[in-house]
Amino acid sequence: MDSQTLLAKVRKLDIKARGLSKNIFAGQYHSAFKGRGMVFSEVREYQYGDDVRDIDWNVTARFNHPYVKEFEEERELTVFLLVDVSGSQNFGLHGQLQKDITTEIAATIAFSAIENNDKIGVIFFSDKIEKVIPAKKGRKHILHIIREMLDFKPQSKKTDVSVALESLNRLVKGRSTTFLLSDFYTHENFEKALNISGKKHDVIAIQVYDKFQEQLPNVGLIKVLDAESGKETYLDTSSREVRAAHAMVWKNKQAVLTALFNKAKVDNISVSTTDDYVKALTGLFKKRAK
Predict the structure, then answer these.
(1) Which residue has the higher pLDDT, 165 or 36?
(2) Would you say residue 157 has pLDDT above 50?
(3) Cα separation of 98 and 182, whole Å?
(4) pLDDT by residue (tens digit) across 240-262?
(5) Secondary structure of the chain in the HEC alphabet?
(6) CB-based contacts of 244: which residues, under 8 Å, 6+ apart?
(7) What gap in Å lies between CA 160 and CA 168, rounded to an integer?
(8) Beta-carbon count within 10 A of 96 CB
(9) What angle separates helix 191-200 from helix 161-171, to the nearest 10 degrees?
(10) Distance CA 282, CA 270 (A)
(11) Whole-model pTM?
């Protein structure tokens, strides 16, 4: 992608994602993702109805009048985006690639994070760690992340989610809020890594996929290329049996994936390239805020 085209795409995504985060997600994000707890703020004179357990006895003794401690939420979070950049992300038959939707969702989350003064970092992964952007604050940092997401060229086309989760656990020492964005098109078992990450971090899984993966259209004989393995297959989509078998495979894979997330207590949503991801994110944030 040439520099002018990239700059135009960055500006377009900047305007869209920043607008969504300010007008829709800022308050919901704040409610959905809590700080690390309560920290001391100041002392003030005791008022009727205050909890006596909050009395600061040292200050009370000094002024011979009861004073209480006030606390406020320790709001600042460290947010990490684990972004799948494998070959299957370049798939899409409905006008937008999975990569496009993943990038828009990631950018919206990133702007929501900095609106709340949180730090944000990114781990790009395939079946290995492709790139790590350390967590920082600021709009300049977000624009750097967006440029990378739009123009990043991975070395591998395959996917291994475990690699991303293990890297998160190794690189991020404290607790983080982590968004795992992938189509989860992987043959590798990542249950162990997910369980460990789910206990150490607040992990949210966001699946982005194309409707073609869920249901084949009736368009006759087609050639299908596996973007990760390079294997070509011919499918007769005019066959009802072929379409039904394809739909059943998808349904079974989704059931396994949902059970995996539920077992690890990981909140998750699925978004197709034709879905309204704003609605999906709003539903996720509202659910977590309850």
Answers:
(1) 165
(2) yes
(3) 9
(4) 898 888 889 899 999 999 999 99
(5) CCHHHHHHHHHHHHHHHHHHHHHHHHHHHHHHCCCCEEEEEEEEECCCCCCHHHECHHHHHHHCCCEEEEEEEECCCEEEEEEECCHHHHCCCCCCCHHHHHHHHHHHHHHHHHHCCCEEEEEEECCCEEEEEEEECCHHHHHHHHHHHHHCCCCCCCCCHHHHHHHHHHHCCCCCEEEEEECCCCCCCCHHHHHHHHHHCEEEEEEEECHHHHCCCCCCEEEEECCCCCCEEEEECCCHHHHHHHHHHHHHHHHHHHHHHHHCCCEEEEEECCCCHHHHHHHHHHHHHC
(6) none
(7) 13
(8) 14
(9) 30
(10) 13
(11) 0.79
Of 170 and 216, which is predicted with more confidence? 170
Q: What is d(CA 68, CA 42) in angstroms, rounded to the nearest whole number?
A: 9
Closest residue by Cα to residue 194 from 186, 205, 185 = 205
Two structure tokens written together for 28 = 């919901």
Is 80 exceeded by the pLDDT of residue 151?
yes
pLDDT of residue 129: 96
**Parallel/antiparallel/unpaired status of strands 119-125 and 129-136:** antiparallel
Q: How many CB atoms lie within 10 A of CB 89?
A: 27
* CA separation for the pair 169, 86 (Å, rounded): 21
Spatial neighbors of 32 by CB under 8 A, at least 6 apart, are: 284, 285, 286, 288, 289
